[in-house]
Design brief:
heterodimer, A: about 525 residues, alpha+beta, 3 domains, 7-stranded antiparallel beta sheet, B: about 90 residues, mainly alpha, 3 helices, transmembrane helix (chain A), PepSY-ass_TM (chain A), transmembrane (chain A), membrane (chain A), transmembrane helix (chain B)
């Protein structure tokens, strides 16, 4: 292009990102929240808050199962972990066929040892997770194409952004507050460079996961080769099911046999070398009972969906089966597994998950500040022109409006009555209605304190979320602290941090408005004197 | 950066970079699979890893060339050459 290599790259950086920047902002924000998908779902199911941290969950679960399905075909116990502190059980009643995936399900109240009834239906973290890679309300393949194209443009924008910065690390250490455009450039560089490897990794691996859609000519499948693996897994599990069906033929005689669960639990945990995530007991309370303990599925970065490590004991407490899945075969499959794990963050412990989350926040700052930088640079020359006004309205609705919609989504979770039909859909409807209201407000009234109003409204909703949580959950915040329900409390803490950020932004907008008014007044006074 | 007389050239260059770049990355992946002999699931995984990096590099190159005309010709010439090579090597989609 005319004007040299760096100018060409600046043009490419600006336009490749601007075309889809509001979609990218929504993808980055909801994707960042998806690192805590299970945790958000826990917060959004207040009835389950009472289930946090049972003292002896295995014993509690087995005694509950003994009371509801003493001669069930099988029991399954999902133990609390660092991401979801609830104790869940599933069972198949005697003679019941495996029609439903996991049979009847209940979450145990650790105080009474009974099931928690009438837990609300919620879209939870899953809605945000699915939205970040296939949007909502349009065919999935179309959503994936849109997200894929946006991600490719993002990838181009990141690399061209690195190319145009001659002194990328020197620029990183300069911050010039109160300098209008320069301040926005510094904020954009700060968000970009501080987590640059993360931005490159998350964009590339995101594209890679959408390869099944974007690379349709390769005889594709959704999400990059998963179908083949699922087919294999399906085949294997079909065989396993047949095997299990043979083993689970009704026994001629059933008599109550108790298991020394505590002892075999400890042995299994040391054998697996990791915390146990769930337990399956087939033919419980009989001589034929078998107890299978499974570890956490994806605790390492190089796992490759090879199944879960598991050990099985018989009723005498003897080890009868062990299955430690082999790693990926070959360098391509290993690389695939690592890239996939990196994006999804399944391998991450609590600290790494938080680091991924804050890197995602920086990515969101990078995208948001980039959008605002475009407007800021062109404010004097282009204000009033249609292109500039469209971008300004979309900036407001796409950034502040999305925070309003998210706040409304979490409020809807607590205010929409728990028992109504299609409750999860109502949460989503409220999310989109709030966003639509913000879009209309941005189009019609953005000149009248548009940013201030939307930022303040979102800030207020996030500020009051912990109070709403305390008022609408059966467990108060003090009791949650005592019970160690850090998942829920962390959500409340992040809500307060988000509110602080939104209010700081609102204050910035307010003070900027005052300064420009004062400047205009002083100019008109001078003109009056002349 | 662009004079008003060249919007069509700019549009053609953007198309050359996006569509031409996509086709070029596609043929690079097909040739790579042909040369390495990788197939099945491994082929899909390898393609997923290589395609987006090569697409990125091609787009950056096509936007770094000094004139629109050269960029468009480069996209056409490289696509023609590599697709022809792929065809004569016995390539089939």
């Amino acid at each position: 292009m005319k004007g040299g290599f760096r100018k060409s790259m600046t043009w490419l950086h600006t336009w490749s990102s601007l075309v889809v920047i509001w979609v990218l902002f929504a993808i980055f924000l909801t994707g960042t929240l998806s690192f805590f998908r299970a945790e958000i779902t826990h917060w959004m199911t207040p009835e389950h808050h009472i289930s946090a941290r049972a003292e002896s969950p295995v014993l509690m679960a087995t005694s509950y199962l003994q009371s509801v399905a003493p001669f069930g075909e099988s029991w399954q116990i999902s133990l609390p972990d660092s991401r979801s502190p609830v104790l869940g059980v599933n069972w198949l009643a005697e003679g019941e066929e495996r029609q439903r995936r996991r049979g009847a399900r209940a979450v145990i109240d650790p105080v009474s040892g009974t099931a928690i009834e009438d837990a609300r239906e919620t879209a939870g973290g899953n809605f945000l997770y699915r939205f970040h890679f296939e949007l909502y309300g349009i065919p999935r393949s179309v959503g994936r194409w849109i997200v894929g194209i946006a991600s490719m443009l993002m990838f181009i924008a990141i690399i061209s952004g690195v190319i145009i910065h001659r002194k990328i690390f020197a620029d990183f250490f300069s911050f010039r507050p109160g300098k209008k455009t320069a301040s926005w450039v510094d904020a954009h560089v700060l968000g970009s460079v501080l987590a640059l490897p993360f931005h490159i990794m998350i964009t590339f691996t995101g594209l890679f996961l959408l390869a099944g859609t974007l690379l349709f000519w390769q005889g594709g499948n959704e999400r990059g080769g998963q179908q083949g693996q699922n087919a294999n897994r399906g085949h294997a599990s079909e065989e396993q099911r047949e095997e299990r069906a043979q083993a689970e033929k009704p026994s001629s005689q059933r008599e109550i046999v108790s298991l020394n669960m505590n002892a075999i639990y400890l042995e299994a945990e040391s054998l697996l070398g990791q915390p146990i995530s769930d337990i399956t007991i087939s033919k419980p309370m009989t001589h034929e009972a078998e107890v299978t303990f499974r570890g956490s599925e994806k605790s390492s970065l190089s796992h490759f969906r090879g199944g879960t490590p598991e050990v099985t004991y018989n009723v005498k407490g003897e080890l009868i089966k062990e299955n430690f899945p082999a790693g990926a075969e070959g360098p391509i499959a290993t690389t695939y597994g690592v890239l996939r794990s990196l994006h999804e963050g399944h391998f991450a412990d609590v600290l790494t998950r938080w680091l991924l989350f804050f890197s995602g926040v920086l990515g969101t700052v990078m995208v948001g500040s980039g959008a605002l930088l475009w407007s800021q640079k062109r404010e004097r020359q282009q204000v009033g022109k249609p292109g500039y006004e469209v971008v300004s309205a979309l900036n407001l609705a796409g950034i502040a409006g999305l925070f309003v919609a998210l706040g409304a989504y979490f409020w809807a979770n607590r205010l929409v009555p728990a028992g109504i039909d299609g409750r999860a859909d109502w949460e989503i409807i409220i999310f989109f209605c709030s966003w639509l209201a913000c879009i209309l407000h941005s189009v019609l009234l953005r000149q009248r304190h548009g940013w201030l109003l939307q930022l303040a409204a979102a800030g207020l909703m996030f500020l009051l979320l912990p109070a709403l949580d305390a008022l609408t959950s059966p467990v108060g915040l003090v009791a949650a602290t005592t019970a160690g329900d850090w998942v829920r409390l962390s959500f409340d803490f992040v809500s307060l941090l988000t509110a602080a950020g939104l209010w700081a932004a609102a204050y910035f907008v307010l003070s900027k408005g005052r300064k420009s008014r004062a400047r205009r007044n002083s100019v008109s006074n001078k003109k009056g004197k002349v | 950066m662009f004079s008003l007389s060249e919007p069509w050239f700019l549009t053609a260059r953007i198309l050359a970079a996006t569509v031409g770049g996509y086709l070029l990355s596609m043929v690079i992946c097909l040739l790579l699979l042909m040369l390495t002999g990788v197939d099945g699931r491994d082929a899909r995984m390898l393609t997923g890893m290589v395609f987006f990096v090569s697409y990125l590099v091609i787009v950056v190159i096509l936007f770094s060339v000094s004139t629109h005309r050269r960029a468009i010709l480069l996209a056409l010439a490289s696509n023609s050459a590599l697709w022809t090579l792929w065809y004569f090597m016995g390539g089939q989609l």
